[in-house]
């Protein structure tokens, strides 16, 4: 817990606001994220009208406004680059002062959220799809087998450049990275329903229509027997070239398996994407030394997925659809 002198400008303003609302010091400390004594000292200082002792700030309000404009021009700059631009603008301050002023404004260095890059036509199709499925019940979604491929790397540490943003700006377009497609590599194929997960398939070659149909034959059909028994189900996959090939469509017709129509570039609508995220988070502390150890770790972690986790993710489909409609087809937080 920081001392009173360590409170940022944002924290002090929040304390003052909550105090006016009649909140107790204990509640204020919990919401602001500091010690109760820091809240008490700040409130007492304000009540007595005491001014903070120490050296006067070397930056003016005008300097701070200039700094905020520089940060907002490009959220992906680092502190060194921002400090250099601020100095060029005529402000005499150290790099550490630049960093402190940014913190006082509420900017923090965070890993940016990733959202699919959608054009206007794709947004329109997503909106139409969501409106068509908005009345589907949990029982209808439980009949859908969701599938996807995902890339797993031996190293999970490199997450790319950080972004400077304030609290509540995670979805700000200026603070987002655009995702397009996974790079070509050996992928892991998996499937899930609201009841459980199916067997995994490790893909050793580039996935074309022939390879994908072998995956369907040897992994999807056994997964369907495992998850649905003899009951009817609907299969979901995205619009990857191997999935939308004519021969693949013929394969599904020959096997009498209905497909769920799916909008392009919409991983945020697919609950299995969140399941991959859960698996990778559980593997965060794992350090496999080679591909075989990585496969073993993935299998072991996949086996730990509970029916409750699967059910919770599939039950989120109505909320995902409502979010897509509210966003008018744009990418959502899921």
From TrEMBL:
> Residue limits of the Transposase Tc1-like domain?
64-134
What's one GO BP annotation on this UniProt entry? Answer: DNA transposition
The Tc1-like transposase DDE domain is annotated at 144-295
Gene3D superfamilies, alphabetized: Ribonuclease H-like superfamily/Ribonuclease H, Winged helix-like DNA-binding domain superfamily/Winged helix DNA-binding domain
Q: Which GO terms describe its molecular function?
A: DNA binding
Q: By what name is this protein known?
A: Transposase
